[in-house]
## 1
Amino acid sequence: MEGCFAERVAVVTGGASGIGEATARALAAEGARVVVADCDRERGPRVASETARRLGRLDILVASAFSTAFGSIQSLGLAEWSRTIDVTLTAVFTGLRAAVLAMRQMGGGVVVNVASVSGLRGDRGLSAYNAAKAGVINLTRAAALELAPAGIRVNAVCPGLIDTPALQRALGRVPAREAVVRAAVPLGRFGRAEEVARAILFLASDAASYITGATLVVDGGLTAWSGIPDLVPGAGA
């Protein structure tokens, strides 16, 4: 994939840390001109529009900004719910809408939305995040259908437990808790942001030219389990 993004322009939201940062660095390393955008739902679309005007084109949008609120359904405040939905889902919509204007003028483009395995399954205490990421996944499908005639591909990645500052904050940096959570991953470790970035770059590249409306899970096998307790003792040894 070396140099396959030469002369292309990419906007990465939430690019200051974690998966967004790893993706921005990977795109730049492959020759892309990368703009790291703010996750704000007003400023993000503005950056996409200004990028296209200033650099003359917009080829790739990677939407990775998110916000998370923890708490049971009964304890979660409306403000916390709203912020999670606004940053994690609504900003994806507004950024997409702005990017599409520039991409239509070029005759095509690529959008990769960073969803989550939490958009495929439920989690206790993460109802707002679950709802927002599930929305990102289905928005990806709807956008892929609408934008295919314009030559714009829209896909999503669903990371699992990735070793990012956000995960460390969620785990409270407590080693015992980290060990329990890590043990739930069949591959036995947390993923690296760079591993998700490589999946994003694949979807954004010409190698994925016939892929749109897809969801690529990058979770070390976390969602492969049905949840049924082991029926054959020692089968997982």
Note: Residues 42 and 152 are 23 Å apart (CA to CA).
## 2
Amino acid sequence: MSWRRALYLLPLVLFAALAVYLFQGVAPGRDPQLLPSAMIDKPAPDFALPELLGGGQLTLADMKGQVVLVNFFASWCVPCRAEHPVLMTLSHDLAVPLYGIAYKDKPEDSAKFLAELGNPFRRTGLDQNGRTGIDFGVYGVPETYAIDRDGRIRWRHVGPLDQAAIDHELMPLLHRLGVP
């Protein structure tokens, strides 16, 4: 085969390779809605955020030594409102502390949101510029992370938490991490 003929086949080969690559994303058994996180099993990013209520700071160091859930939310987020009753139930039913991070939100709006719907969080940090969210790999709110006793991210849930995610993903993980 001549080089000229090979050059004509090159676009066909590249197209076939691209088609195989794209098909893998929608292949049976693969969920195209799933957003993988490069942070799973890696140390959670260090942060120090001003607290929404209380005037102190919320830091990663405050969470070390215990399994915790961190929920990124915002008052302007409609799915966050839908998720909120689930968070309220979790905060009462689980032996795991739930921390909130108000993502790209005004402090007064976040405070009003929690006053109106109830406050499920042990403490809430303000990530007004979104830097902490970027460090965690947040795509949008709401997102919830489970962090183990060593400060490693062990789980991430994109979108509003629902009972299925709690029953099939979160609870088995918490049991593996030794949470009663």
Note: Confidence is low (pLDDT under 50) at residues 27-33.
